[in-house]
Design a protein that fits this description.
Chains A, B, C, D, E, F: GO terms for molecular function: kinase activity. The structure is a homohexamer of 336-residue chains. By secondary structure, chain A is α/β, with parallel strands linked by helices. The first copy, chain A, has one domain: Ribokinase (UDP-N-acetylmuramoyl-L-alanine:D-glutamate ligase, 3-Layer(aba) Sandwich), CATH 3.40.1190.20. In chain A, 34% of the residues lie in helices and 24% in strands. Chain A is built from 10 helices and 14 strands. In chain A, the strands form 2 sheets. In chain A, strands 1, 4, 5, 8, 9, 10, 11, 12, 13 and 14 form a 10-stranded mixed beta sheet that branches. A 4-stranded mixed beta sheet of chain A has the order 3-2-6-7. Chain A starts with a strand and ends in a 7-residue tail after the last helix. In chain A, 59% of the residues are buried. Chains in contact: A-B, A-C, A-E, A-F, B-C, B-D, B-E, C-D, C-F, D-E, D-F, E-F. Strand 3 of chain B pairs antiparallel with strand 3 of chain D.
């Protein structure tokens, strides 16, 4: 099993029940999550040794974050306590044609206001196989744009492979800012989650002008590969959104000049879409750590993501055996 | 923005959770609503100045009604307090093939036993653009058959346009009684919600004998228009009931000899169907008050109705901006 | 109306809410049920005089079982109190592609450790039309394999028709053990619920090698009939599992050399699948008790089963009138 | 064990959670209960054969009433179905200094509009030891004033002892009306629940003018006894209301010229006070049926009432063994 | 009835259920409230015309605030929309000996970052009898210290009486800062809520050195009065904290050189203490607006505060009639 | 900070809501706990390095146990997976005079059927300061009587201090059996939780015949000390049970011939009493590990136990700082 460090912000999500609007609700369900934290939980579920580094306030909410991560076996030695507040957001899940709606309240969080590398980087990256970070972190502040690179370089130096999820959030920065920063990061990256829009907007890949859906995905991966030959694996999902309650999901992966695609999962109904992408990334990293063949990697990762959509909360709750048995069984029968 | 008065009964709905029968439940969710009250809420959401006139008992339930309406910005100056009780009904929502089932307990309510126009009509209708009332009200008693006409005439005299929703309820009166009464009302009406069955049963329109589904809707509107040239706008929905959990909905509108139809909304899953028609009527009246073009009116109204089906409770909870953004976006994606 | 006795184990089911895993839940919903108990409730709902014989511990859980059965009008005179514990199981319902998952904790229950016929058999079967028992009971212990036969013979002698539901559970015994026991039981059986897999695994019927789906069902029934001419009615369902949330269900019945099939029910969404088969068996026995024609029997039973899938809990909550009105209406409209 | 018939109205109670007002609640807990129904449940819990006669609407609410009674082993053969509606009331439980508040919505119920003895009286009272009825029933209508007497006489003739609980409700009738009717009933009564205020207001007993609290209770019983020598047992409670959350309760009983008093129970906190008096009456009748000595009767009945205050819902949920073990143990320790 | 304006911050409170800690909870109950908003709701409940001025973000949470206030009949014309976020706090209610614990997350809220008087002051104060504001507002920022005085002066000029609640919060500013600001405000104040500690810490009153509890309260009022002869009414509560679940509460008031004290309320159990002081202030202002005699004012206000402690949420839910009937009845009996 | 190992059974507790009986409930709250597990959580909360050794089934319930312990920072390396089932029990909490009632369903659990020391004892006890075990474990089986001694000796040999909680459970073994076993254990024990009844029943101490409550506790400790001079610390609580909802609690400790007693805590209301004793033991061990003076040890431990009674669930949720601040503050005020 591998040793992994992920670093990023973790927030408190306030969700209303299905069919209840934020403006009318009398109660919120509380979930703790964030891209890198969710990836950490997935990998811990699969038996890897995972640490999540972040910063949370030194109060009961920070303590709740620590308990949440510990519950799933994630090491919290590098979860710093301090700073002004825990970032949060409010989610009103979509139903059928109606899209989800989100109110972010993350400005000024303990993590966002970090200005220097407060973690003991030597200890953090020592013996670590993969360091995973996402494009949300450099989007938080100018300081974080610098700091992200500092962290990545330190990890690289310590011998980690760098896993980067582009994860563009338009509410945090402009495409221009994002592109500039991302292009300084990618030369250090080994595994990269980036899709067709990321290729166009941030990696300066020209739009595909053919008419074959099959070739389109390969095209973008190939072009991104050309620009960043240092990246050994690219991966992404193709999602067909029938409605907020029903999606089709296909995972795709590119490595060594080959394109791999999972079977298509019809996810209907969707219980909770948040964290679906993180479960996918977690599945890919798991496969790569285990040196599984690439078709198996993408099958596993996509199945893991499909499963995540069927449970409440940000984080995947399935073990390696459960994901594999789901892949083998592939239906909705009672097992008894 | 316009000034609107709606008048009718408002009831306490007791709902069981999905998958729980009335005969086994240990708890009921409480919602307050009624056709005209729901229209009032929709219009208040869109920024109009709306008053709802009714009568509720002078106890905590009457107070709950007042609070419910005030919450959505509906004026309750004309909500009288007194009389024996608040009408109620029990709803066991349908699931899939299984239809919803309803037990009414509305007889003898404070509103139903009203015998004379207890409201200050002059004040009620002063400066009002539209007076909206439905066919449920005259169905409540012989006194209400007379009173409904009294109210409509007073509103007309005060310069209001009259909006009437046929809304036939077979448990309250026979088709014959209904038809007789409705035909005394329609000559005063400006905007009328009436569908194909209403045309046949109450407006004495001969059944369509062609085989074009497209022409059928136009046919009924044209025939109704012939009989009541005073009515400037007719509107209705075409609903394809796949199951209690999935419906298709198309809005239709007739004005100036033209037929307008919205796009089709697939509502799957349905969270709560009650009030779907009222949200549609509210959307139509909003468009007419704003003098929007008729295609936009019907698009907006049908979208508003589709949205209503995705939230619990009788009343639409969406602002004009939200309905319009839903129309523009038209899918179930997370916005972040 | 008929008089029926069913006998078997009744357990406490712990269910998590949809989208919540057993390993993360903070609460369980409690339902009491078991194959024969559920059939008893269905038949009591339809107005038959039904007793359920079993054994439960002499504590509040045993008392809860008694209250549960009494609530639905099932006679509990033959529900013995004593023994070590109430069997239980944990159910995490499936969602979409994800299958349900079950943890059984039934070993050593008060019923399972019964060694001799503790019930007053003379009183139990006196005047009874049908004695219903399932293949789960002999699977519980060696003693129960003998005891099941003792009970069946006593019932037969008392003039009861014997109804047997094969209901194979692989977690309790092997196919070999099951087959051996079942084949000692079938010569006493009058009504038998057994499908295509039961025919192959336990009744030693050769697999169908044709390619007509229509003929396949008939084939198995015909072959089973050949082996057990004493059985006057065979019945079973054909279930197409689209996902854990959506199934298609067709009921089939064989009698007097004729094959009957119900219409197909699309069950979407499934609220609770547990007890769906028992509702079907209950519907068949109801039709047979009422000497309805066989097409009506299978239509009613399949409708009853489809309805069961739309409510929480093991037992069907619909009266004969409700099932028939569902059959007549066949859609998901609000009735008001 | 004895055979008992009770007859009266049963209603649907809507309760809010503690600390939530009716005018603000979004949900109600549903309980079914009524004085005579609650007594029936208590006696069935203690192993007596009890039938409850009433009338409820022929809908899911009537069915819920039947299921509720059956659950506790009460015979519902004489629970008629039909009429307009189920009476209901809304309860906002008191907290500390704040009293409970109740909204009745019971007018026009299926039971209240009964005009003639619709039950088969011969069958109803055949073999019955005690017929229990309360002063709420004659308060419902003029017809019920007559009918109550008809029922009591029929029961008397059939050999039943008559148990009557004065249970005056000021919202239903005046003291004058009540007194007149009650005085026509009492000559037929054997067991009577009546307290100090009942003695003064309805039995025309002069107010006690001594200053000994001990003698006061005896005084009223003695005077009532003088007026109605046919009544063999009088009983009542003395309740000291510290607050809506904490009460002291003492049971008192008079028979054969002797006064009996239970120990004092401090009930703190009170979970649900509704039905506390019915549990007391049920306990007294149980003791009288079992010919227990009078001190034991009053101890048991008061303990049963105290226990009732510790559970939600109208009806006592404790067996004879549980009440006795509570009496013996007398504290709040964990038993393990 | 009077016309009142209150101005201040309104926040979203997240509460856990009783006995559940913030660090372990999976859900929060949502309440909206703030000192001045709660006073506004109380006064609206009593029939006064009340506007609440504040600023909330232009999103669903801001909309929820508006709906909350409208529900209770508070005018929201002066509730501005805009700015970064809604302030919030997390409350873990105390139980018995264990104190409540609070995490504030109010920094940077839309209200706190206001720098200039964004409201139309002329319109805001026109015709208004009382302007109520608390010491929390100037504690929010340096800008707010100035702005508070600006608002008070404008209100004064427009003819309003100024009501000021000292309401010191040590987490927001030091005693020195608070004292300095408060002493610039008090010369404009007419009604002032200030207790013994306020007198010492902010009004520079020397500590009482006598030993009569009766005289102590008078002493502080007299001394404060000496320093601010412009203040016509001082009021405060004496609270004896037995535990987080049980308090004794006495209201005190000083006017025209006379000291008034309410009876003592034992509040046990406390359902929700938040807003208890605001309900008291609301009750005092109501009495003053109605020119009730001072003993009645303090009795009413203290009863209103005691009642508030028995319901969930920040705001008092009782009408004038309910408070008065509570005063008259003074116990916890069921009224029926 | 110290290093501690605790070993014992951990069970799934099913609790009903307050005021709901087991025989009527439709839902159970799930908590995981057991004496030694709860002590482990307390010590982990205080910052010690704690491992809990046990055995749970290899299914989702075993996984839930692991997650529960990890959440609180307890090391689960020695939590074995396997065996038949997880022990469970049902708890109906007491209310006021009514005692709690418990149904155990723990027979045949994965832990109870352990026959040999399946843990790697060398690794388990390496570097460990204290090994804590209770008298429940040897009560589970004859094998466990031997095994308990084996474990204690191995721990002793590895240099651990032995902490033993007598914790007699009459449902598991007789006083005779218990006494015999406990007396073989005590010669190895360093810290012992044993009270007055334990002294009499198992340590063969003659009953105190004086009349000073103060001297009684000392007497028993002194006599126990005489018999087991190897035990350096004895501790216990004196609990005055006013009712199931209100207790008084005093902690007592004996060491070096001195008797220490904490202040008295009035716990009212009690939220959840389960685990109160374990929180006390955890507090004592914490103090002993930190070599705090004995008065501080007993003050801290009793405060920790009092706090535990105010939260749901078996395990204490308070940090060292929170317990100390509770001791310092000592009341129920809001801190803000």
């Amino acid at each position: 099993m591998g040793k992994v460090v992920t670093l990023g912000e973790i927030m408190l999500r306030f969700s209303t029940d299905s069919g209840i609007r934020i403006a009318q609700t009398e109660a919120f369900t509380a979930h703790y999550g964030g891209g890198e934290a969710n990836v950490a939980v997935s990998l811990a579920n699969y038996g890897h040794q995972v640490a999540f580094a972040s910063k949370v306030p030194d109060n009961a909410l920070g303590e709740a974050v620590r308990k949440h991560l510990n519950r799933y076996g994630v090491d919290t030695k590098h979860l710093l306590k301090g700073g002004p507040r825990l970032g949060s957001y409010y989610l009103e899940a979509g139903v059928g044609e109606r899209a989800a709606s989100v109110i972010y309240d993350r400005a000024g969080s303990s993590f966002a206001v970090v200005e220097t590398a407060e973690w003991n980087l030597e200890e953090l990256f020592s013996g670590c196989d993969i360091f995973h970070i996402s494009g949300i972190t450099p989007a938080l502040s100018a300081a974080w744009r610098d700091l992200t690179l500092v962290l990545i370089k330190a990890a690289k130096q310590a011998g980690c492979l760098i896993s980067f999820d582009v994860n563009y959030r338009g509410k945090l920065w402009s495409r221009e800012e994002a592109g500039k920063t991302i292009r300084t990061i990618l030369p250090y990256v080994d595994y990269c989650s980036a899709g067709k829009l990321d290729a166009q907007h941030f990696l300066e890949v020209t739009a595909y002008d053919g008419d074959s859906e099959e070739e389109e995905a390969s095209y973008y991966y190939r072009e991104m590969q050309k620009k960043y030959p240092n990246i050994s694996v690219f991966y992404s999902t193709k999602r067909k959104v029938h409605s907020a309650s029903a999606n089709e999901l296909i995972g795709t992966l590119w490595s060594d000049g080959h394109y791999y695609e999972s079977q298509c999962h019809l996810i209907d109904p969707i219980i909770d879409r948040v964290g679906g992408g993180d479960a996918f990334a977690g599945g890919v990293l798991h496969g790569l750590l285990n040196k599984a063949d690439h078709q198996k990697v993408i099958n596993f990762a996509t199945a893991a993501s499909a499963l995540k959509h069927t449970v409440h909360g940000d984080c995947n709750q399935f073990s390696q055996e459960e994901v594999e048995s789901f892949l083998a069984l592939g239906s909705g029968k009672i097992i008894r």
